[in-house]
Amino acid sequence: METLRRPLKDHVYDYISSRIDAGELSAGDRVSEQAICDAMGVSRTPVREALIQLASDGYLDNLPRRGFRVRGFDQQNAVEVFEIMGPLDGQAAYLACPLLTDEDIMQLKFLVGSMDLAIQGGLIRKYDDIQRDFHLTYFNRCGNDRLRDMISQLERCFIKRDYETVDQETACKLLNKANSEHAHILELFEARDATAVRDYVRDVHWNTENAQFTVW
């Protein structure tokens, strides 16, 4: 069976977004098409396509006759996204609750435990990866593709989290609090309480007070 090859544009997209995530490109930095072409050994076409997609997804600003630059994600942006994500994520949890299988519940338990281990080890980026998997587990069971796509689009705003603005001890406290919320979400899923899990995800997990830690 042949393995489907990803379009070259997608590889360029990943390369640029990973540089933003790593802090190699910061808010306001210009993204040079030619520099990307040279670094990846590709033509301008896939680079241009990737840049346009990154601008569409909110990572870059497309400035007429001046090219592309990295868009910042300030406090107001973060609050606005949290206000939208809360109801959307809550509704996804509500729809998924009666549809989650025993295997899904076991997976969620495993991921909560894995996040605890990541926090204990100071592996913040690993924690972020695992928490995305936690939410994706029930997103994929919600049965509403349009809702899932809307959430996926907004999640792209959280390409990186600025935990470096706080010390390691404070960061761990923040993550422990967040993971205790994941554990409670799991408990509500196990109880098959769709209304409670919707309200908790919306009102507690996406409380706008937490938005400051997604600013970049």
What's the gyration radius in Å? 19 Å
Q: What does the oligomeric state look like here? A: single chain
The CATH class of the largest domain is identified as Mainly Alpha
Number of domains: 2
Strand order of the largest sheet: 1-3-2
Distance, first to last CA: 42 Å
β-strand amount: under 5%
What composes the largest sheet? Answer: 3 strands, antiparallel
What would your notes on this structure say?
The structure is a single chain. The chain is mainly alpha-helical and 216 residues long. It folds into 2 domains: 8-70, Orthogonal Bundle (Arc Repressor Mutant, subunit A), CATH 1.10.10; 75-214, Four Helix Bundle (Hemerythrin (Met), subunit A). It is 64% helix and 5% strand. The chain is built from 9 helices and 3 strands. It has helices at residues 8-21, 33-40, 44-56, 75-96, 102-120, 124-139, 145-155, 168-190, 194-205; strands spanning 30-31, 60-63, 67-70. Strands 1-3-2 form a 3-stranded antiparallel β-sheet. The radius of gyration is 19 Å and the shape is globular.
Short description, anyone?
This protein has 216 residues and is mostly helical. The chain is built from nine helices and three strands; from the N terminus they run αβααββαααααα. A three-stranded antiparallel beta sheet has the order 1-3-2.
Secondary structure layout:
Layout lengths: L7 H14 L8 E2 L1 H8 L3 H13 L3 E4 L3 E4 L4 H22 L5 H19 L3 H16 L5 H11 L12 H23 L3 H12 L11
Antiparallel strand pairs: 1-3, 2-3
